[in-house]
Amino acid sequence: MTDDDTTRILAELAQIRRADPPTHGGRVLSYVYDHGRPELDRIAAEAAAMFLPVNGLDPTTFSSVARLERDLVRFTRSVLHGDEDVVGSVTSGGTESCLLAVKSAREGWLAQQGRRAGDPGGPRPEVVMPTTAHPAFRKAAHYLGLVPVEVPVDPATGMVDADALLSAVTAATALVVVSAPNYPFGTIDPIARVADGAARLGVAVHVDACIGGWLLPWWPEGAAGEPWDFAVDGVTSISTDLHKYGYAPKGASVVLYRGRQRHRGQYFATTGWPGYPVVNPTMLGSRSATAMAAAWAVTQALGTQGYADLVAQTAAATGAVRRAIDGLSGLSVVGDPAAALLAVAADPDRAPAHQVDPFAWVDAVRRRGFLLQAQPAFAQGDGSVLPRTAHLTFTPVTESVTRELVAALRDGADEVRGRAAPGPQPDLVERVITGGLPEEMAPVLSTLEAMDGDAAPAALTSLLASVIDPDVGHDTDGAADA
Ligand SMILES: *Cc1c(COP(=O)(O)O)cnc(C)c1O
């Protein structure tokens, strides 16, 4: 391979990358967590490059990995008020952290029943959660053979009632899940009350702080209002993502447990094959240490003061945009979001002619250069319906674009106010699969929203599978593969 080859290949990669929306600069209000500090990107890149050849599968061989992991666990537990009884692992992301917390709780529950770890026979354990809990817990139930038990939240506030959640707990409950905050509405569940009640019943409680774990500890005036982490006795495990507000590149999260026995429950170990003795702390076998090294470097570079400073910036930007949204007629923020994420619904107190449809608004704001995330309406088990919303996640760089963002939100709302929401189109998913995503996403989302709970997953699966199918997929700009 010549230098020319290197240049050409990397140029092509850069060209492919140009199809993406900008990951820096505050234009994408989900998925990316921009600190706005180029020096952090540099240190993360160099740290990751240093660990590219390492295999995190075996920390007894690559002892550097064990060192990084111990440091990250120690730092994270200190932030979350854990004492020496709190231990855990670095995982590849929030979903893996949640899956492992559920596996650990399943093994704990099976042991209580006098059954063996991983035992598939007998009654299935349950995981109790508000409807707002992250889908990672439904996925965990699906993968690990538990029954998900979903408790409705108040459609006006996005809040679950602690007593309602606790009354869903039975002898089959292996775990109760609460969030700090939940993703859809950004509200914090009544964690102290739930943990207290669950502890009395002898049931484990997981706090999903995947998105809030690196925000809430420094949020001005204590966003949570009351303790929500290991300071609460009944909390038995917490997940928190380094690759969100920890500002590490994607591929790093931490799951922590109160008690070493609980942590052991997430492991898989076997000597039942002719090869080397296997012990996997997480879901993966061979695992990259690049994200862990980058996360280590970023947390070292920031320290608690660095996080406090970035949170202060994020909080200021959130306050400014929130006030602007509160001033937009026809839209209203759902409930009382605790930190840097919120959902905006059509104002229920307005007549349709004065309402702004969130899907239409997302498209209108996108035409003005900012990407919001559309969340379809959701019918809960009790028949109540959570509204369709637009979701916004703010980061430190939001501060640098507040004026442009507020103008886009306002002008977008003015453009579509009173306009009827686009309805579902029966053959739309098929057309998207063959023709690619349209400019206007509202009809696609309305179509998905109108599908029943069985049809939608199949449609989504076909759609996403087609995107990466070498014989079907095409770039959004219509360019053919080389
Ligand atoms: C992001 C998120 C997760 C899942 O994390 P991934 O890193 O996307 O796998 C779980 N819970 C909450 C509240 C989240 O915001």
Automatic annotation (TrEMBL):
One Gene Ontology biological process: carboxylic acid metabolic process
Gene Ontology MF, one: transaminase activity
Keyword presence, ATP-binding: no
Keywords: Aminotransferase, Lyase, Pyridoxal phosphate, Transferase
Keyword Lyase attached: yes
Family recorded in the similarity comment: Belongs to the group II decarboxylase family. Sphingosine-1-phosphate lyase subfamily.
Modified residues (N6-(pyridoxal phosphate)lysine): 244
Domain of life: Bacteria
Lineage start: Bacteria, Bacillati, Actinomycetota, Actinomycetes, Micrococcales
Protein name (Swiss-Prot/TrEMBL): Aspartate aminotransferase family protein
Organism: Ruania alkalisoli
PANTHER family: PTHR42735, SPHINGOSINE-1-PHOSPHATE LYASE 1
Pfam families: Pyridoxal_deC
Cofactors, names only: pyridoxal 5'-phosphate
